[in-house]
């Protein structure tokens, strides 16, 4: 996930960036549904990673299931972060156009990209946001739904021990289990990330995050069904329904993210990277957003004072001077990053 995207998420949800920024889980992307382990030809970790990097599955559609046990606090306006199981539908034309539909109890959130313009639409309050896509920009909400897993491999590979641990059946398709475990020098709350790679298409079908000291996944997202082939072109266009309130998203820049706010900074890399962003000013946070100053427990140090928020796989500090620091790391790594 790009730093600007991570900063935008943190401005809304605080703790979520620790997962999204450090492990690449902020995207509803790679995705579950498993069966018996199939017999597949042996493959080396290096060859499997290389094949994922070169994979080009073409057009596809599928249902994605997300099983969240992160222990995040309830966040108004972002119900998909709360513990539980949720589903989404995804479509991709294989060439930069895409659609994601996230149903909720109140309605549906829809993200659509035609390659040049990205739309987000919330049927609950009938609002839509439009953004022009700059050349080369990756729109995670509506791009190839397997790309984020490949991005996670690229980010974590140099600080990981990489192995292939057997096979699995995901969404009715045989897959290899690629495992990335942090090297001993990485200070992280995570034990490993497992990615089920389609044996034919070599795209990620499921991603599982395991925290240190726990045998149960803290987070799992994967396809429960997937089909490959041409998709209806009308899926990748969007016309706001009558009565919709439409607004243009702010354009980013060298020092500004897509919301117009200052871009966050990243301290460190790999598993113990920490993202530091400026917290939205009072009155500038999204409507219905949480009061982050009331979450967690009080902490202080040479960097100042604030509140510590922890989950199974992430921690964050909301400082009294308006900063947010987060990562899949223990508190000490956050405080060291804030002190730099």
UniProtKB/TrEMBL annotation:
InterPro entries: LolA/LolB/LppX, Sporulation_related. Keywords: Lipoprotein. Coiled coil: none annotated. It comes from the Bacteria. Residues 242-266 are annotated as: Disordered. Gene3D superfamilies: Lipoprotein localisation LolA/LolB/LppX. This is Outer membrane lipoprotein carrier protein LolA. It comes from Pseudonocardia lutea.
């Amino acid at each position: 996930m790009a730093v600007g995207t991570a900063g935008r998420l943190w401005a809304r949800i605080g703790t979520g960036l620790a997962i999204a920024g450090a492990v690449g889980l902020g995207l509803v992307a790679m995705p579950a549904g498993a069966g018996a382990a199939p017999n597949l030809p042996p493959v080396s970790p290096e060859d499997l990673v290389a094949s994922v990097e070169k994979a080009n599955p073409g057009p596809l559609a599928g249902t994605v299931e997300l099983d969240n046990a992160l222990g995040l606090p309830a966040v108004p306006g972002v119900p998909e972060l709360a513990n539980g199981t949720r589903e989404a539908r995804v479509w991709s034309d294989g060439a930069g156009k895409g659609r994601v539909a996230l149903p909720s109890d109140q309605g549906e959130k829809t993200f659509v990209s035609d390659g040049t313009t990205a739309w987000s639409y919330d049927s609950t309050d009938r609002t839509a946001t439009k953004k022009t896509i700059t050349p080369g920009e990756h729109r995670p909400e509506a791009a190839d739904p397997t790309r984020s897993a490949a991005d996670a491999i690229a980010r974590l590979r140099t600080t990981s021990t990489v192995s292939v641990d057997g096979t699995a059946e995901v969404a009715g398709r045989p897959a290899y289990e690629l495992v990335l475990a942090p090297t001993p020098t990485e200070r992280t709350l995570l034990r490993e990330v497992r990615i089920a790679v389609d044996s034919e298409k070599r795209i990620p079908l499921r991603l599982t995050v395991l925290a240190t000291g726990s045998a149960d996944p803290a987070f799992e997202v994967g396809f429960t069904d997937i089909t490959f082939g041409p998709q209806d072109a009308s899926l990748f266009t969007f016309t706001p329904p009558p009565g919709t309130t439409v607004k243009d998203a702010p354009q980013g820049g060298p020092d500004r993210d897509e919301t117009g706010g200052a871009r966050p900074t990243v301290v460190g890399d790999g598993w113990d990277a920490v993202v530091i962003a400026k917290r939205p000013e009072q009155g500038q946070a999204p409507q219905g957003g949480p009061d982050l100053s009331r979450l967690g427990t009080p902490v202080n140090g040479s960097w100042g004072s604030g509140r510590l928020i922890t989950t199974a796989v992430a921690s964050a500090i909301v400082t009294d001077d308006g900063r947010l620091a987060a990562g899949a790391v223990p508190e000490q790594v956050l405080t060291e990053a804030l002190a730099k």
